[in-house]
Design brief:
Keywords: Repeat. The chain contains seven helices and 19 strands. The chain has 390 residues and is of the alpha/beta class. Among the domains are: 85 residues, Leucine-rich repeat, LRR (right-handed beta-alpha superhelix); 156 residues. The N terminus is likely disordered.
Length: 390
């Protein structure tokens, strides 16, 4: 078929067994040069050949979930390209000079930790950049990306913090921000952000904050917040978040090192999901009546010092789902129907699940199922009566 006769604009290839790699791209470049969408998701492809750079009308290119390791420099010829999706590919580095002419690129989706050596600042129309490895040149160029809606950056060093904050202040349309420190025990220095984007809705921070940056409490449009390995301590950390007017989901994953969490009356007025995971020092969870007024889902995971069921759960009239995961069996025993001293705290909740170890395996049980298993264990542990002995 000649290129003058071909009117094909989109090509989708999914999960095929074998693919004539170079022949296919050569055919596309020669006969289907008006193609605008090329989606090779999941194709057994380990190389993207130079011919792809001849598809000058291409707007969308995806090698998601392939074995592709190198993106050819000819990609720089695709001046109409708007989306480049490399997610779950084997690409680790994007070559120097690849972005200099991709002025229309809006969405660059890459595997976590991909290194962009230089040139990202040319992409002034870019709206999505996820998830790129931090380096000195990249941090300097981020200030040019003022149209970003989604930014994900990892392996951030402490000394990058101020420059990153300066760049973020220029991103007036930013809706989602994910930042990973170079390691879980490394400082994530974001305190110098004085004027955060008012549009920010989703915030994910991985690394030690030690104290909560003041600007987070001013994010009136924030919907979801995840804090991982944050090292926060003291009631003030939670108190600063409780007034966020639109927060719907809050996730602490090893994010709080304090002994007590306290939820005030009227705190978190729109919060619907609360996840407390790996809070190894937590021994008390206090929920005042009127706190968390619309909470529907609560998960408490791997909190080994929490020995008593928080009685304030009884105050959560809207709670529909409660999960306790990898907590001490003595803690779960207190919620056995009819005999557990804390069963009254949870009996009003529609769905309660215990995820626990039994014989080295995880089980997922309702309180009644858990009670049946524990009763069976008790009977098996009782010594058998010896015959003939009165």
């Amino acid at each position: 078929m000649s290129s003058t006769k071909s009117r094909i604009r989109s090509v989708f290839v999914f999960s095929v067994g074998e693919l004539p790699k170079q022949q296919l791209l050569g055919t596309l470049a020669g006969n289907f040069n008006l193609v605008k969408i090329l989606d090779l998701q999941g194709v057994p492809l380990d190389q993207l050949h130079e011919e792809v750079g001849n598809l000058l009308h291409l707007r969308y290119l995806s090698v998601k979930r392939t074995e592709v390791k190198i993106i050819p420099k000819s990609i720089g010829n695709l001046q109409n390209l708007q989306t480049l999706n490399l997610k779950d590919s084997q690409v680790f580095v994007l070559q120097i000079g690849i972005f200099s002419r991709l002025h229309k690129l809006r969405h660059l989706i890459i595997p976590p930790g991909v290194e962009i050596r230089e040139g990202i600042g040319h992409l002034e129309e870019l709206q999505t950049l996820q998830y790129v490895k931090a380096n000195d040149d990249l941090i300097k160029e981020l200030k040019n990306l003022r149209q970003l809606r989604k930014l994900g950056i990892c392996y951030l060093k402490r000394e990058h913090g101020k420059a990153l904050c300066t760049a973020i202040e220029k991103m007036n349309h930013l809706q989602s921000l994910s930042v990973w420190a170079i390691g879980s025990n490394k400082i994530l220095d974001l305190h110098s952000l004085s004027c955060p984007p008012a549009s920010l809705q989703h915030l994910y921070l991985y690394g030690r904050l030690e104290t909560l940056p003041n600007w987070i409490s001013r994010l009136d449009n924030l919907v979801s917040l995840k804090l991982v390995h944050s090292g926060l301590t003291g009631a003030h950390a939670i108190k600063a978040l409780q007034a966020l007017p639109n927060l719907v989901e809050l996730n602490f994953f090893n994010g709080y090192d304090g002994e007590q969490l306290y939820f005030d009356v009227g705190g978190f007025p729109k919060l619907k999901s609360l996840y407390l995971r790996g809070l190894e020092g937590l021994n008390s969870l206090v929920i005042e009546e009127g706190g968390l007024p619309v909470l529907k889902k609560l998960q408490i995971v791997c909190c080994p010092q929490l020995m008593e069921v928080p009685s304030g759960i009884r105050n959560l009239g809207e709670l529909k789902s409660l999960v306790f995961w990898d907590v001490p069996t003595k803690f779960l025993d207190r919620m056995q129907p009819g005999i557990g001293q804390d069963y009254w705290v949870i009996e009003h909740i529609h769905s309660v699940q215990f995820v626990w170890y039994d014989g080295g395996l995880f089980r997922v049980d309702t309180p009644q199922e858990y009670q049946d298993v524990r009763e069976s264990q008790r009977l098996n542990d009782e010594p058998e009566e010896l015959e003939g002995v009165e």
